[in-house]
Design brief:
By secondary structure, this protein is mostly helical. It is built from seven helices and two strands, in the order αααααββαα. It is 69% helix and 6% strand. A two-stranded antiparallel ribbon has the order 1-2. Helix 2 packs across helix 6, helix 3 crosses helix 5 and helix 6 crosses helix 7.
């Protein structure tokens, strides 16, 4: 359910500082540009950046239930399921039984760990190249701003749930 917390500017200075344009569009444009950058570096490994990210999460957190993995990655269950299929098919991840008959666990195979290590080297080069293009201070400021925004949005969600 959409909710609005918009307020009217109270002064001319506030009006000049008010955001213009669509935040969603601007974030999506930035995300697409950054995704293209990382994909160009990671593609020679046979991975897309989304696959590298998923594989890395499973290597670091696994064995893990799909629902817990989806929560940690901040994706919905259907997106996670769709993204798991190619990694399972390649033999980089394996799905096994969980604690009870209805649960399952995802874990990285040895081939998956090796593929993640290969991807990690490319990912590191992509990050260094992005830092060089944007400047490390700008990248650090962007990370901090994103973390602050995520915390504010999470806090607002928690308040709405209470």
């Amino acid at each position: 359910m959409p909710r609005s917390t918009a307020t009217r500017p109270e002064s001319p200075a506030a009006a000049q500082a008010a955001p213009r344009g669509c935040t969603n569009l601007k974030l999506r444009q930035l995300t697409r540009a950054v995704t293209r950058h990382y994909d160009a570096w990671v593609a020679p490994t046979g991975l897309r950046n989304t696959q590298y990210s998923l594989l890395s999460h499973v290597v670091l957190l696994g064995p893990i239930q799909p629902s817990a993995l989806a929560a940690r990655m901040r994706v919905d269950a259907s997106t996670l399921t769709r993204n798991l299929h190619p990694l399972l098919a390649q033999g980089w991840l394996a799905q096994g039984p969980g604690a009870d008959a209805r649960s399952r666990l995802i874990e990285a195979t040895e081939a998956g760990r090796a593929k993640r290590a290969e991807g990690q080297r490319a990912w590191k080069q992509a990050q260094l190249a992005l830092n060089a293009r944007l400047g490390p201070q700008r990248v650090s400021a962007l990370h901090e701003l994103i973390d602050d925004c995520m915390a504010a949005l999470d806090a607002a969600d928690e308040e709405d749930d209470a």
